[in-house]
Amino acid sequence: MNRIILDHTLPIPLYHQLKEIFDFKIENGDWNQGQLIPTENELISYYEVSRTTVREAVNALVIEGKLEKKQGKGTLVCKPKMEEILGRLTGFAEEMAIKGLVPSAKVIEVMEVVPTALVREKLLNGQKNGKVLYIKRLRLANDEPIAIERSYWPADIGRLFGNLDLSTIAFYAVLEQNGVRLRYADENISARSADKGDAAILEVDEKSALMRMERVTYSIQGLPLEYTMTDYRSDRYMYKVRLER
After folding, report:
1. Whether 125 contacts 215, CB under 8 Å
2. Are 79 and 234 in contact (CB under 8 A)?
3. Residues 40 and 57 sit within 8 Å (Cβ to Cβ)
4. Contact 147, 92 (CB under 8 A)
5. What is the reported pLDDT for 84?
6. Cβ-count burial of 154 within 10 angstroms (0-12 exposed, 13-18 middle, 19+ buried)?
7. CA distance linking residue 73 with residue 75, whole number of Å
8. How far is CA 41 from CA 37, 38, 46, 187, in A?
9. Which pTM was predicted?
10. CB atoms < 10 A from the CB of 83, how many?
């Protein structure tokens, strides 16, 4: 293998040149997913740069989610994140199918519950009477845990799912098959830390960063049909938005 020499005469910082080299190695498969990259000292020696330059290049790729530092082990190559483009109304199963992945679910809880004030506000326009259907599922892609989905449905909508296998169905497809047309959804995205229970389900460390997607879906008549909070592993999932001017 020919040694790549960094160009000190370019106006591009050395750490950025080194980052681009590392990035190419990841994209080209020279550094494979889950593989430890060379040690800091090995990189310093091979590329003939300072420790600071190596650290800045590595840290830039850690921030981008392409590398991950493991205490006591070193730095390894992350799996590429799944990307969802905002602006289209799809469910998890549809998104995974678009990516060529096999979606599945494990049902954790199903019950009728008295809605909290928040759920009443989001789903029932503040009405205090009646219960809602609560479904908690682990969402997987190619059998890998990706997200925990907590969804609430008005009782009349929830009955449509009554005799169905909740580990395999796509909710939106069931609604449309029963003549319920979807119009739009409002989403909020925030961050939270995984508590002990969620961390165990998602197979991540406690306090790992999760990305919370909060969605209210509306019918063609403008009535709320679904209130869902989905917590995604931030190391495996990301949202993408294109802004134009």
Report:
1. no
2. no
3. no
4. yes
5. 63
6. buried
7. 7
8. 11, 8, 9, 46
9. 0.70
10. 11
